[in-house]
Amino acid sequence: MLVIALWAVFTFNQLIRRRNRVDEGWAQIDVELTRRYELVPQLVEAVRGYAGHEESVFSRVAYARAAAVAAPGAAEHDLADTRLTDALRSLLAVSEAYPDLKSSEQFQALQDALVHTEDRIAYARGYYNALVVEYESTRLTFPSKLVAGLLSFPPRRSFEADVTSRAVVGVALRGDEPAPRT
User: Fold this and answer.
1) CA distance 11 to 6
2) Other CB atoms closer than 10 Å to residue 170's CB: what's the count?
3) Is residue 41 within 8 Å of 66, Cβ to Cβ?
4) How far apart are CA 156 and CA 149, in angstroms?
5) 3-class secondary structure, 154
6) Using an 8 Å Cβ cutoff, are 43 and 114 in contact?
7) What does the alpha-carbon distance between residue 99 and residue 50 come to, in Å, rounded to a whole number?
8) CA separation (Å) from 146 to 15, 52, 55, 131?
9) 0.85 surpassed by pTM
10) Which domains, and CATH codes, for the chain?
11) Tens-digit pLDDT profile for residues 99-150
12) Which residues, at least 6 apart from 108, have a Cβ–Cβ distance to it below 8 Å?
């Protein structure tokens, strides 16, 4: 009986540690997403200075950003992130029509910051997803499943990017480099 009690305590503690690591991993994604969300209005304003008549694109980006900021968890962020990426793709497509904008130092700096932030989001997403797999593997395997079920350890969902939305990271806006088509 003592062995079973010790095993249950050990398993409980292991589940707690892994759940906390998943929460920590999500916090890192949240930091990077916040950085991205803070760049978006600056990028919109830089494009607006050159293409002020593109209000529908600006509105779409603003709406997508607001929805992404308000998304409460990984599942909601999946959809919101995809919509924001699609809206940014539209914004960057508008910028292609304005050579002066593409050569603007401010726009280039914002584009570089966005690409760097997208890379950091991808890294944080990978780290988080690995932690979710570790937690879920522990939570769902027997005999740990008994403790997880009795003590209500909820499932966690991976944070996946829409594969078609990844093209925004590689958008080239300098010189003669063509923008990738998706």
Assistant:
1) 9
2) 11
3) no
4) 14
5) coil
6) yes
7) 10
8) 12, 60, 55, 21
9) no
10) 15-170 (1.20.1440.20)
11) 888 778 888 899 899 999 999 999 999 999 999 999 999 999 999 999 999 9
12) 102, 173, 174
- Residue 179 three-state SS: coil
Distance CA 62, CA 55 (A): 10
**Quick one: tokens of 64?**
């997508």
Q: Which pLDDT does position 150 carry in this prediction?
A: 92
Task: Write b or e for each residue in 59-80: b if 16 or more Cβ atoms lie within 10 A of its Cβ, otherwise e.
Answer: ebbeebbebbeebeebeebbeb
What's the token pair of residue 97? Answer: 């029509």
pLDDT tens track for 122-131: 999 999 999 9
Contact between 12 and 142 under an 8 Å Cβ cutoff? The reply is no
| CB within 8 Å of 104: residues ≥ 6 apart | 46, 50
Q: What is the spatial distance between Cα 57 and Cα 80, in angstroms, rounded to a whole number?
A: 16
Assigned token pair, 174: 């300098």
Q: Residue count of the chain, please give it.
A: 182
